[in-house]
Design a protein that fits this description.
about 20% helix; 5-stranded antiparallel β-sheet; Immunoglobulin-like; Type-II_Cytokine-TF_Rcpt; membrane; interferon receptor activity; FN3_dom; transmembrane helix; elongated
Length: about 400
């Protein structure tokens, strides 16, 4: 019975070994590196698995661990379906020597391990400067270089202490033709090219180098700039003249715009409207309203309802004169003497020989001397009353309607 069990276990082991030997392992292992960034890549024949999906496991160990009976392997990628594994954050020492291996997993079966030797100091590529900047100082050209960066964003000079730079620069002619290349090396990050021509355009390319393992990076893209020199006096005068003219034009436009804006605002908020000339008197004073003039004069007026149009006629029919008033040659009536009654009234001539319509005489008593002929003219113009000139020294005027 015990022998039968042993035969079964042996059969299972042989079957598993045959399955593992039959599963295709990865091939074409390659370390893709730049500075301290490491990525293992491989290839695998998918046709060997058919429709099933295979996974892969990646491990590494230091070569000093391989001398032990039970070496310690560190798993980086377990059961990954991709064809690459990033070892950047695995803590590989830049000066160490490691063995990296990968295995295929399919339906619980495993292929044999495929391994590769990796030494970062020897195998890892270095990159070009992370940044290059040009500066012009007169007739010289300044170059500013930033070291290539590792995975921790620090300078690669922490790993490569003898890192230096190879600089290639050339003059770029205006006709587009090539010119002779000039080369120099430096281990500093700031340098000045003094052997350049003024007012000339130069292009620069830089790459990193390390001679211990003869490492060199690719060149940076060309970076071009133009040097300067002493500015001629005619250029200085021309720039000064242009600046002066520009300032003058700016000030002129500002003054013109301010003046125009002032007049627009004044015409909008303070329009210049003037009264007509017939509203002004000869002495320049504005005339009083008719109501106020009448209030000042305070006349006694009786209007006959037979006519709406009043006419002031200096000539009064002698037949219509009341008794007690003398008639002179000019048709004016004098005020009665002090002994007679001071009353004035309206007298109507019942009919005259000339056949004129009846007229109503309006008598103003105690006329204000300031009520002159010009004010009566204004009264006649506004109220459509025709007024005859009044003699200032006469106290009474007849108004016929």
């Amino acid at each position: 019975m015990l022998a039968l069990v042993r035969l079964c276990l042996l059969f299972v082991c042989l079957k598993g070994s045959a399955a593992e030997a039959g599963l295709t392992p990865p091939h074409d292992l390659f370390m893709l590196t730049l500075n301290t960034n490491y990525t293992l890549t491989w290839d695998w024949d998918q046709s060997a698995a058919g429709s099933d999906s295979a996974t892969f496991t990646v491990q590494y160990a230091g070569n000093h661990q391989l001398k032990k009976r039970n070496p310690k392997w560190t798993t980086v990628c377990a059961e990954t379906s991709g064809r690459s594994c990033d070892l950047t954050r695995s803590g590989l020492n830049y000066l160490g020597l490691y063995t990296v291996r990968v295995q295929t997993n399919l339906n619980g079966s495993h292929s044999v391990w495929k391994s590769i030797q990796f030494c970062p100091d020897k195998d890892a590529a270095i990159g070009p400067p992370s940044k290059v900047r040009l500066g012009v100082s007169g007739s010289t050209l300044d170059i500013f270089i930033t070291d290539p960066q590792n995975s921790s964003n620090n300078s690669m000079k922490e790993q490569l202490h003898k890192l230096y730079y190879e600089i290639v620069y050339w003059e770029q002619p205006e006709d587009g033709k090539g010119s002779m290349l000039m080369t120099m090396t430096t281990d500093v990050t700031i340098l000045t090219l003094s052997e350049v021509e003024p007012w000339t355009r130069y292009c620069v390319q830089i790459r990193s180098r390390d001679d211990f393992y003869n490492k060199s990076s690719t060149f940076t893209p060309p970076l071009c700039t133009q040097t300067e020199g002493v500015v001629p006096w005619w250029k200085i005068f021309l720039f000064f003249l242009l600046s002066l003219v520009s300032c003058f034009l700016v000030v002129l436009l500002f003054l013109y715009g301010s003046h125009h804006c002032f007049h627009v605002c004044k015409a909008t908020f303070l329009p210049n409207e003037k009264l007509p000339s017939y509203f002004k008197e000869q002495d320049g004073d504005y005339p009083c309203l008719i109501v106020s003039e009448l209030d000042q004069c305070d006349p006694v007026m009786i209007v006959c309802p037979e006519s709406a149009l009043l006419e002031i006629n200096p000539a009064v029919d002698s037949a219509a004169l009341p008794a007690g008033l003398d008639q002179d040659r000019s048709g004016r009536h004098s005020r009665q003497n002090s002994s007679s009654s001071g009353d004035s009234g309206v007298y109507s001539a019942g009919g005259n020989s000339a056949g004129l319509q009846p007229k109503v005489a309006l008598t103003f008593t105690d006329v204000n001397p300031t009520f002159n002929s010009e004010k009566l003219n204004m009264l006649s113009m506004n109220s459509e009353i025709k007024v005859s000139p009044i003699v200032p020294d006469e106290g009474v005027e007849d108004i016929e309607v």
